[in-house]
Fold:
Amino acid sequence: MTEGAENTSDATQQSVRTFLDEAGIAWEPGRRPGELVVTLPGDKKLNTVCSVVVGDQSLSISAFVVRNPDENHAAVYAYLLRRNLKLPGLAYGIDKDGDVYVTGRVPLAGAKAAYLDQIFGVVLAAADGAFNELLAMGFLESIKKEWAWRSERGESTVNLEAFRHLLGPDRDEQIDS
Structure:
């Protein structure tokens, strides 16, 4: 790495930290050089954890979305590919285990506060905003089994409320709080 690249990388790293602090977004240093682990609060997911890596020439961001679907892989992947067309600066992808991530990369010169604000918003929309739809498509049988198991034991089903409409007419029992 040249001295100029190191200075640009260090300046970008500090710029990202300042942005996160001013925005009130939780972060901590990651394990890899130049990495920050950022935690975005969610509505459908409790939170979305992002890896932000400031390298010599670019800033990359990656966030876990959902594990490898249990079912309907083709429908899940088609949904993700259609959403890719609407994600500015990011794209969905899968790892070797089939787990779904959203990732992006920008040259260091483009990693300004306005871009960071936009990209973290897009990451949150991609991971949190699509979460329930992805669960419904890829894990419906597991959701049905979980609902039945909890209902039979008198356990709370409140965190499954978003899927009530998919569980059929025989699932209209009162949701516990």
Q: What stands out?
A: The beta strands are 26-29, 35-41, 47-54, 58-66, 91-94, 100-107. The first helix runs from residue 3 to 23. The helical segments are 3-23, 73-84, 113-129, 131-153.
